[in-house]
Amino acid sequence: MFEQVKLTYGADALEPYIDTLTVETHYGKHHATYTKNFNDAVAKAGLEGKSAEEILASLDSVADESLRKALRNNGGGYYNHNLYFESFSPSPAKAPTGALLDKINEKFGSVDALKEELTKLATGQFGSGWAWLSANKAGDLMTSASPNQDNTISEGKGYIPIIALDVWEHAYYLKYKNLRPDYIKNFFEILDWSKVEENYKRIIG
To answer: What is the mean pLDDT of the segment spanning 123-149?
Structure first.
């Protein structure tokens, strides 16, 4: 049974960048609902025992269209929000190090240039969706954006997200209203690069 990632910080700990009510609503209601619905869909599809990544990477094998859609939307919602919430810290590492830093500099020129690229993708994502930094087993990096609860796993290109930037309105609207760029700027203030490095190391093995 899939469970929400346990927060390592209090609901008020990300203030003033993300407010308490947003954390309580986003994590306690939206993420909880995706998790419940994903578990229900997994049971109906007989996919117990598979990881969320395995399920999202093999959606085409699910013949029932409505069940496939439920797995895609709720599985993405579950997986994406786990990555999102576990990447924050009230006292984050402000920059990557080691192999990840080297790859970022090689691919984008600098960490600031990567942030600019993610900001551009997140700001330009029409409607609900996400901006991503993803990696493959070879250690290559890729930025992208996707609508709804889609992510790079279901694209079948071997890339797995290591940064998830949520631009659904429920992620920011209570505090920022329609000022999505302000939320995106402050996202990086609480992004814990040590967690991003952990994600990267896990993928490259």
So the answer is: 98
Which pLDDT score is estimated for 80?
98
Phi-psi region of 77 (alpha: psi -120 to 50; beta: other; left: phi over 0): alpha
Token code pair at residue 43: 């049971």
Predicted model pTM: 0.97
Q: Give the C-alpha distances (Å, rounded to integers) separating 68 from 75, 140, 150, 178.
A: 10, 29, 13, 32
Confidence (pLDDT) at 95? 97
SS3 state of residue 134: strand
Dihedrals phi, psi of 165, to nearest 5 degrees: -110, 105
How remote is the C-alpha of 165 from its chain's centroid? 6
Compute the distance between CA of residue 79 and CA of residue 6 in angstroms, rounded to an integer: 13
Class of domain 98-204: alpha beta
**Domain coordinates in residue numbering, the chain:** 20-86, 98-204
Q: Does domain 20-86 have CATH number 1.10.10.10?
A: no
CA gap 148, 155 in Å, rounded: 14
